[in-house]
Specification:
Strand content: under 5%
Order of helices and strands: HHEEHHHHHHHHHHEHHHHHEH
Helix content: 55-70%
Distance between the termini: 48 Å
Largest sheet: 2 strands, antiparallel
Number of domains: 2
Strand order of the largest sheet: 1-2
Amino acid sequence: MNRLRSWIRVVLPHDAALAVSIAIYLLMDFVFGGLRIDDEGRDVVFRVSGLFLPIAACLYGGYRVYLLHPIFQNSYREWLSRTPWSGRLPLPLGPVHLVTQDAVLMLCLTALALWRHPPVAFGFDPLSIPLVFLMTYEASVAVSLALAKEKTAAYLAAFGIGLMLRLWSMHLVEWSLLTGAAVYAALRYGLHRSFAQFANWNSPTLYQRLTGSAAPTSTMTRAPTDALGWPYDQLRPVPPHVGIASRDGLILSLLTGWRVYVVGASFESLGGQFNRPTGEEFAVLACCVIVVATVVRLGRYCAGYLPPLMLRGRLAMGRLIIPQYDKVTVASLVALGIFALAIALERHLLIAPAALYPIATTGAMLVLLGGGPSLRDWRLTGGHRLAPGIHYSEGRLWKRL
């Protein structure tokens, strides 16, 4: 018994998390019990607690990567770098790749779903439990590979996970699982390559990728160790990793359009079950993606780099447009114009939304990610004035803490 417990503990979450999950499931089963519903003329019992099983599988998939992969745990990575560990050896805290214990846990959850929660009621399928786990796990591994600069495997996985979701929405769970197996093969190869290059890992942290700062952070709760404060952080040379390469911009744009299609088609399939397939899902998703991407781009460029004249000054001096500064908004305006054009084409030419809006999203993302000026050129030569931005505010916050 002790050997079995030690064997399964390799991948199990902490005892507290496990106890809380079991308590939530039992509480939901006790409070709600079984609800009688009509499923195509049959009177069946639907247990609300069954909805917790795919959620638990999803959380477990994220846990398997986030808490065991050194790239997400800075102190773990730093400790490994000071030891003789190499990619040919097993990780001390547990494997990142899938093992037999994962299959056993998924079989247990699936068996529980088959026993207590029959595959009826809102299309619930017990086979969806391992599928949800696999998609979450593979998405987390793809993020880790992107941070480790194994981008080819990460991009293949991202497109493959979208195909898995599309097949799942078409109730082709078995085909979705087969696609997941092919995606895992690519990720497994990427993991092997990334761990083989562990000694050369120099991945920018989340703080660096979001702010463009060269200041490394050892944990998410520690201030940048070499932050100089405002305005010196803005005046020093821009780190070379700022910006997105043309190849990455193209692939990310195609991936965004693909995801808009997949998610929109999934919602459309769900709406079809309730006799409400309208196609509006694609327009709403495209609008959300483009608007959010536009705001993020403007924030990335303009945080701490304000115009030489604000609106009141422009009106007073008659300089409504300052080309040297306002050029930073051209790409954002073009992206919004592409979305407006897509709406007009749908209304007047009756083009199918399932094709129109993903293509429009791809075009808008191409403009936002590849349109000039580059972030490096903007920060070095743009017609702006420096102002305390996110770097200065975070520095003051860290001093208070």
